[in-house]
Amino acid sequence: MSDWIEVGTLSDIPKQGARVVKTDNGDIAIFHTDSGDVFAVKDECPHKKGQLSQGIVYGNKVACPLHNWMINLDSGTAVAPDEGCAATYPVKMDGEKIMLSVTANEGCPNS
Amino acid sequence: MKEKLVVIGNGMAGMRTVEELLKIAPDAYDISVFGEEPYGNYNRIMLSPVLAGDKTIEEIMLNDLQWYDDNNITLYKGVKATEIDRKKRTVTGDDGKTVSYDRLLITTGSTAFIIPLPGHDLDGVIAFRDIADVDTMLETAKTKKNAVVIGGGLLGLEAANGLMQQGMNVKVVHIMDTLMERQLDEPAAKMLQANLEERGLEFLMGAQTESIQGDGKVEKVCFKDGSEVEADIVVMAVGIRPNFALAEQVGIHCERGIVVNDTMQTFDPAVYSVGECVQHRGETYGLVAPLFEMAKVCANHLAKHGIGLYEGTMTSTKLKVTGIDLFSAGDINGDETTEDLVFKDESRGVYRKIVVKDNIVQGAVMYGDTIDGTWYFDLMRDKTDIGDFRATILFGQAHLGDSGHGDDNRVAAMADTAEICGCNGICKGDIVSAIMDKKLFTLDDVRAHTKASSSCGSCTGLVEALIAHTVGGDYSVAPHLKPMCGCSEHSHDSVREQIKKQELKTMPAVRDALGWDTPDGCPKCRMALNYYLLCQWPTEYKDDSQSRFINERAHGNIQHDGTYSVIPRMWGGMTTPQELRAVADVAEKYNVETVHVTGGQRIGLYGLKKEDLPDVWKEFTDAGMVSGHAYGKALRTVKTCVGKEWCRFGTQDSTGIGIKLEELSWGSWTPHKFKMAASGCPRNCAEATIKDFGVVCVDSGYELHVGGNGGIKVRATDFLCAVKTEDEVLEYAAAYMQFYREDAHYLERTAPWIERVGLQRVKDEIVEDAEKRKVYAERFYVAQSVAQDDPWKERVDGSEKHEFLPLKEIRG
């Protein structure tokens, strides 16, 4: 079972933007897309560990600021033809509050 | 229920359309395909290398049968579509099977034209069109000796070369006096013929074939003058004809091909057609580049995006015969209104002719050394005024693919281990195998898969040459103006024009009005649109920080470890003890690891944490220093030497004019970074002749230079003009910057911009018309009136605070 932790409200994160939650196991980037969805992804590009939170957010994707790899925010996988994935974390809304679990979803070896 | 799309024809055009469609609307249609040949889809333009033994059939397959399975496409393999019922919307095959459609795509391609000579139907008389023809040729070559190829055009020569490689004695029969007369002028054709003769081909020029004779099987070819030659095989390669019999038979309007509009629809709007079978704006095409463009437009329309228009293609030709380099594009013969620029060096086997009209390239023929073909093609397509480099244009774009490659640009001769892309460490072999294994055709494909030329871009020319070399002759580099990104079909120029014309003032308005495919764009177009809107509506548009690259959002350059650099402005490269003290204090207080004197005469502090940036900026703000914009597509630095104030050679106050230039232009956003310099005398210690805008002081005043670059590709500036006073320098600088801001594409430095539009255009706008110059300068001042707020001070005062703070910390 996930332990849900409140990390802030939706209005704390600009649309098409991201902010970071610092944890003992590294930073987690919380993304707020243009359509209003929220995703939590490890703040580390599978390519050269660029901070995804600093990238440009478009659709449900983010472009890594270092070498422009595109990462799908829902799955954490790189957009083909690039290969690799960043771990994703369970995140949900409770009213305006963003609730995060710091136990990574399964499926990505980089968690 | 899904709509049904039926494709008649399993060739390159049809399957490329399907691929494009699957990319943008994977679930839009149930797709079925009628393919006459019993194979998947193969790369027809690579048949020549297969015949020559350079490649195998497997190597030229584009879509194997598995691909159809994987994409749920029903392939009726070896089935010829023989009937279309446009009322019931069904297609029937020659096996009696009937399939219904909602939309139909006819891609029946073309057929080789067979001259109806007596004996044309004998065994052993074939065309050069498909795998079966190639098989026949390969089989014949195993046991027989004599081959005759009728037709001295591109296809005929490739067939002849292939048969010769297979060990046959080949005679090429051509009705004209020179080879490839549509693509080559006489000198180039003669050089080509001499070269091919040296390799062993025989030519019968100006020969009129009368009949082909033999007893059931071809034995000889007879000519009108009574002569004859022995032949075990006759290949007719006299041209192709669009294959539109089926369409015509069911009442779809055809002329020389199936007539289509700009969205690739026939006169029946439910029926589309692309490829060699169509006639578009009166033209038919036989090359791969236009066919791919058509496919893209057609797929867009099928996906109901409906924004792309096909407006015709400018094509170029190369011959796929190993060891022969030949390039031809545009109007190569010219007329009384054109001039020829010619370069000929027979012992090196090099010939170039460029046809020019009013200093605009109309066409080019090259033989022996074709590396500059793509450059001439770009000049022709962009209608660049070549007046300023006409004297040297025949020697080529000498700095193509600079950065360490020097003149060693012959990609064919390069070793597989030769590094092409220095940024990403990609070698020739990596690129060639990616092109072959992954079936890549375009620069964008190669960039996506290999990363070659995707960083600094300096090797783009080399990568394009490699693609052309590897995929063969029909590759056209940039057949029309490229879309600015994958979200729409609009080019940079058309977007800028529409922003102005339709008074579009927000990003969503642009995307709505111009039919973007994506709801909120992509990084490429967001950054560009943000700039274009800002440039067009400086006092109205609200900058969208989420559409800026992190460096411009955080006002520092992100480093590979996620830390940032901070570089305060030092006006004209001048500083004071107080400023230096402030720099030293910050460096100590924040444990800055690296303090570096930059190439732009500033001091950079490296390794600062993002959270610390606002505090660091506060220190600098308090010391009276502002952001140096060392991170932005913006005015960077104005480098100076000390000038006549100190130097015994100085002619003017170069530091003074440098500071004034920087005060004038700091804070302005530009399509790409913009650097200036002012030198006090022609010794040019400030290196003003490799800057975007350079001032060289002389005794009589100031020389102004533009379009220089000391980076990726070194380019010395072009001389713009000389002026007498400081005020003039400032006005010219403002006008020039504004013209660049309004005209260049986003991420285009002044050097490639000037090469694209021509220096003359800059002179027309800025130098020769004083009124225009004033108007440009005035618009620059307006833009600057709202741009010169120090972003560091704004952040210190609290704006965009969220950018620098974590959302939360969760510990233990």
List the helices and strands and how they pair.
The complex is a heterodimer of chains A (111) and B (812).
Chain A: E1 5-9, E2 17-23, E3 26-32, E4 38-42, E5 56-58, E6 61-63, E7 70-72, E8 88-89, E9 91-94, E10 97-100
Chain B: E1 3-8, H1 12-24, E2 29-35, E3 41-42, H2 47-51, H3 57-60, E4 61-63, H4 65-70, E5 74-77, E6 81-85, E7 90-93, E8 98-100, E9 103-106, E10 110-112, E11 125-126, H5 131-143, E12 146-150, H6 154-165, E13 169-174, H7 186-199, E14 202-205, E15 209-214, E16 218-223, E17 228-230, E18 233-236, E19 240-242, H8 245-249, E20 258-260, E21 271-273, E22 278-280, H9 288-302, E23 316-318, E24 326-330, E25 339-345, E26 350-357, E27 360-367, H10 373-381, E28 419-421, E29 426-427, H11 428-437, H12 443-450, H13 460-471, H14 492-501, H15 507-513, H16 523-536, H17 550-554, E30 564-566, H18 577-589, E31 594-597, E32 603-608, H19 613-622, E33 635-640, H20 654-665, E34 674-679, E35 693-698, E36 701-706, E37 718-723, H21 726-743, H22 750-757, H23 759-767, H24 770-787, H25 791-796, E38 808-810
Parallel strand pairs in B: 1-2, 1-9, 2-5, 9-21, 11-18, 12-13, 12-18, 13-14, 20-22, 33-34, 34-35
Antiparallel strand pairs in B: 3-4, 6-7, 7-8, 10-19, 15-16, 16-17, 23-24, 24-27, 25-26, 26-27, 28-29, 30-32, 31-32, 35-36, 36-37
Helix pairs in contact in B: 1-9, 11-13, 14-16, 20-21, 21-23, 21-24
Question: If you had to describe this structure to a student in words, what would you say it looks like?
Answer:
The complex is a heterodimer of chains A (111) and B (812). Chain A has one domain: Rieske [2Fe-2S] iron-sulphur domain (Rieske Iron-sulfur Protein). Helices cover 0% and strands 39% of the residues of chain A. In chain A, the strands form 3 sheets. Chain A has a 4-stranded antiparallel β-sheet, with no helix packed on it. Chain A is globular and about 40 Å long. By secondary structure, chain B is of the alpha/beta class. Chain B is built from 25 helices and 38 strands. Chain B has a 5-stranded parallel β-sheet. In chain B, helix 11 crosses helix 13, helix 21 packs across helix 23 and helix 21 packs across helix 24. The radius of gyration of chain B is 31 Å and the shape is globular. The chains are: A mainly beta (111), B alpha/beta (812). At the A-B interface, strand 1, strand 2 and strand 5 of A face helix 16 and strand 38 of B.
